[in-house]
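Summary for the lay section of the report: proteins are chains of building blocks that fold into shapes. Here we show the chain for ABC transporter permease and then a coded description of the shape we predicted for it.
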Amino acid sequence: MNFLKRSWLSVKTRKGKSLLQIIVFSAIFVLVLAGLSIQSAADKSSDLARQKLGADVTLQQDMDKMREKMQEQMATSGEGGGRMRIERTPIDVTAAEELTTYEQIKGYNFYSSTTGLASDFEPIENESSTENAEEEGPGGMIRGGMALGDVTLQGVAFTDSETDFMEGNATIVEGRHLTSEDLDKNVAVIEQSLAENNDLSVGDSITVANPSDESISSTLEIVGIYSTTSTGSDIGMNLAAMNPYNKIYVPYTAASTLKGTDYAGTIDSAIYYIDDPADMESFVEQAKNESSIDFDTFTLNANDQLYQQMVGPIENVASFSKNVVYLVSIAGAVILGLIVMMSIRERKYEMGVLLAIGEKRWKLIGQFIAEILLVAVLSLGIATVSGNYVADQMGQQLLNQEVTSAETSNMPESFGGRGGMFGGQLGGRMGATNMMQNQQAVIDELNVQVTGNDLGMLAIIGAIIAIFSALLPSLSVLRLQPKVILTKQD
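The coded shape description reads as follows.
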């Protein structure tokens, strides 16, 4: 009789043991399939997180290298105990703009900051703003021999992608944001309290002067008014310029001009927003190989903290699911092996008779493997039917965890269409609550199901478990001679 036919008759005849094997195999398959579906959901969630959050790279002066150079100079000149002064080196705008054409980025912003003197309006001051000044000079407040001014000018390329606006700490209440079209123009966005204190509105003008040289001044047209929730620091509030209400946003060209001719065409730093955190390293490498930036003076600092924070729990769950697949597969093979061994030991007489009449050993081993594979096929069908439900529950739990762990992320207008200065439309400014709702809607659309790849991998794992669980017990018995098997039959 063909050994495949014998395996079918054996499974059919031994209904109790076959049912036990089907139950054990089905439990193993369901757990393994759950682990595989979690990994698939984790991969999809990670892709979604990369598309949603991205990452950013900051171009700025390499302070570590500057510090080392200053220490070497002081040691060479014998001024080891002197006071170290690190000279700030501005970044050439042309060099920074080279990186904006790289395909890895979805947006950027340039920064140039300085302080100024309010010439025709009154800054908002605390009672302690002037009490801590060392002296009062013709250029305003002086601290440590440096004129500080009484307002801060934050030069940017886009206000909607400035940190405070992206994090929801500042919002436009009247007028508009600054964009790339405002470069080389004398325009400004001022804080609401400063505007109300001076009876200013959109369309009015203010004049700000250089604290060290009042002959350098700029008259700025107000194009927007914003409100801030920032309260500033206790130390910073002692200085009028550090008061968050005295922070004025201007194009970085206007801030650089107010610093003086030495700073024309320069910025303090630049931030490049990477579309996919996986492209961060390639962006940095391309910049080092192709751009004209002096990397002996400047550095590119990569930041994918938000992405790592979001995918951290996902990766932990995926790692756990991988361990589940390994443990369940090994434990399942051991348990099934013991069951098969018990079954084979009870069938020693049958094997002895078959061997005595000339049946080949490999056919007997094939019969046991075929029996367990037949059980595995039936169990695979059961796991496939219930697998979608398990995968959906596991996937939804994973996605809910992602939403809970994710931080709110805004998508400014300046991250719009490629080309030019990224001035396309991507939906404007959204508050933290609206953004979370939008993020929730996008994530909820992800429908995680058992895929063909998952079932294919499950079938391979099941076949390996079945073969090992049947092969090893079979070999331990079939190594005996037919006469020994028959004489030892109980």
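Put simply, here is one thing we learned. The longest helix spans residues 361-405.
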